[in-house]
Design goal:
The chain has 3 helices and 4 strands; from the N terminus they run H-E-E-E-H-E-H. It is α/β, with parallel strands linked by helices and 115 residues long. The chain has one domain. InterPro entries: Alkaline_phosphatase_core_sf (IPR017850), Sulfatase_N (IPR000917).
Length: 115
């Protein structure tokens, strides 16, 4: 939430303070105003989002952006395990799939030409 406030500790801050590697992949609903703090304020060291609401991040764009988010999260976990397989981690993954219907390719293709 945009009005959450910096005085309140988030789960990502608590986990980061406890030694977890913390990453966020996907939508960002903490704040999009220019004065909104970036991910590091919330204890997030790796940040990949799908919209250009923050200029302090990597963007996953194009068709299949959720797939790119999941792939990026898996790659991040794999890279962590190569460095220290005992370090705990937390992945905050907020895809867009929840906002859009998911259909098989066959069903979508059957709609061609329908307006």
């Amino acid at each position: 939430p945009y009005e959450y406030g910096l005085g309140n500790q988030t789960v990502t801050q608590m986990l980061s303070d406890a030694g977890y590697a913390v990453a966020h992949f996907g939508k960002w609903h903490i704040g999009k105003q220019k004065a909104a703090p970036g991910a590091p304020v919330y204890g997030i060291s790796t940040f990949v989002e799908t919209h250009a609401t923050l200029n302090r991040c990597i963007r996953a764009v194009g068709l299949g952006s959720d797939e790119r988010l999941f792939s990026a999260a898996i790659a991040w976990i794999s890279s962590l395990q190569k460095v220290d397989e005992t370090r705990p981690f937390y992945v905050n993954l907020w895809p867009h799939t929840a906002h859009d219907p998911v259909f098989s390719c066959q069903i979508k293709q059957s709609w061609n030409g329908i307006r």
